[in-house]
Amino acid sequence: MNTINNTRKIHFIGVGGIGMSGLAVIARRKGYSVSGSDITTNYITEKLKKEGIKFFLGHRKENVKDAALVVMSSAIKPDNPELVEAQRLSIPVMLRAKFLSMLTSNSKLIAVAGSHGKTSTTSMITSVFESSNKQYTSVIGGISKHINSNIKFEKGEYFIIEADESDGSFLYYSPLVVCVTNIDNDHLDFYKNIDNIKKAFVMFMNRIPFYGRAVICGDDKNIRDIIQYLDVPYYTYGFQSDNIWTIKNLSNDRDGIIFDIYYKKSKESQIKLNVFGVHNALNATSSYIAARYVGFDKKDIENGLLSFKGVKRRLDLIGSVNNVLFYDDYGHHPNEIKSTLNSLKTFYPDRRLVVIFQPHRYTRTKFLYRDFAGSFNDADKLYVMDIYPASEKPIKGVSSRLITDTMRKNGKKNVYDFTTSIDVVKDIMSGDIILSLGAGDVYKTLGDIKIKYENIA
Question: Disulfide engineering: 385 pairs with which of 25, 358, 417, 439, CB 3.0-4.6 Å?
């Protein structure tokens, strides 16, 4: 902690993202002078200004001249002028995860990892703390609706975070409790293959102390493959009967889902959620076990999960017009997409599902376009937008047409290359679900479609 304790001013390169902005706010609330820069403004950067954080539009070397510490997103390139200048001036530079690990070093850390479901699970755990009036600090990878923020800063002993595996930086953390939701074939530009991903998760979980606990989804094949390599105590959970904690009697009701949690064959609790989907039953069970392990009683956890309002951009109902439901979801991996579409089709079996999908990153599309092509079986109609590049440069021969061409070759009907919002609007029928999917800015397109439909409905 000395690097932080001796610091006067902290500068964040790439502060406009959901993860970096949360750390900047916590640093400011801890009393540090904070500045940050990014290449665009958005609602996040406006919130940062209200927190008293100086924001620079664009990356320029003079932005770091007064900094005692520079924190950078993993998306920052080596030739970034602020990074180059910080190195020239011998200003300490650290990755976001390293900085977060220092912030959490004196706390009891609950870390949620996994290829999918991290944000919802982290948010569910904080909902339990929130409803029980137990102080905590959290950094979430999305806007949790029950606190209307991606961060919470209090003086409690617990710190609850998402542990991002994308670049291996979750190995900085020393957690008391780890929840691992699943392990999937993603971030192959960094890991190269699934075996390297599995090894990283083993290394991460083995950082837990002997008095801590790993809470892992036993239904996930890749997790089952690595259990033999764990040197720490763990609980498995899921629908399969050989898990230590099992989910039974899952059913839908008007507002969400109800299910029972069993511990070693004995009924432990009944959970009611105001969100739907099999994946949310799994996320809630992981949250339940983590909360039980750190001392919450059953009723407090049940109430906390019941009060969970969801996360923005995670199966997020943004409005209804003329019996047409408009949903937005962050899903950007084939398995996430399958889960989201299945959840909507299960909950709304009689509605037509129209999907607008925006692939995220050229590298992900290059490695997984065949998997993407097979993930939209539950979509009645699909529009595919151009790739959202994030921080990547184009790759020759890689475009969203890889996905749509593969789908057409495989005989999939009603697949279209997205051109304009009005094309979607003209096709909307009463009773439809219009779903935007992707980690980029596809939600803006959905908003435009909704407004245009309101004007003609």
Answer: 358
116-157 pLDDT per residue, tens: 899 999 999 999 999 999 999 999 988 899 898 899 999 899
For residue 3, name the pLDDT band (cuts at 50, 70, 90): low
| pTM exceeding 0.70 | yes
Instruction: Give me the domain span that covers residue 16.
Output: 7-94
Angle at 299 between CA 294 and CA 300, to 5 degrees: 55
3-state secondary structure (DSSP) of residue 82: helix
Cβ atoms of 181 and 217 within 8 Å: the answer is yes
Question: Which one of the listed residues 82, 130, 162, 302 is annotated catalytic?
Answer: 162
Instruction: Confirm whether 232 is domain-assigned.
Output: yes
Query: Is 118 known to be catalytic?
Result: yes
Instruction: Give me the catalytic one of 85, 104, 118, 122.
Output: 118
Answer yes or no: do 183 and 328 share one domain. no
**Domain for residue 99, yes or no?**
no
Closest CA to 429 of 350, 360, 358: 350
In a domain, 141, yes or no: yes
342: confidence class by pLDDT, cuts 50, 70, 90: very high
Domain identity same for 281 and 406: no
For residues 197 and 258, membership in a common domain is answered with yes
- Give how far Cα 420 sits from Cα of 34, 148, 356, 379, 392, Å: 41, 32, 11, 19, 24
CB neighbourhood size of 117 (10 A)? 24
Catalytic residue, chosen from 45, 104, 119, 340, is 119
pLDDT digits (tens, 9 = 90+) for 251-296: 988 889 999 999 999 999 999 999 988 999 999 999 999 999 999 9
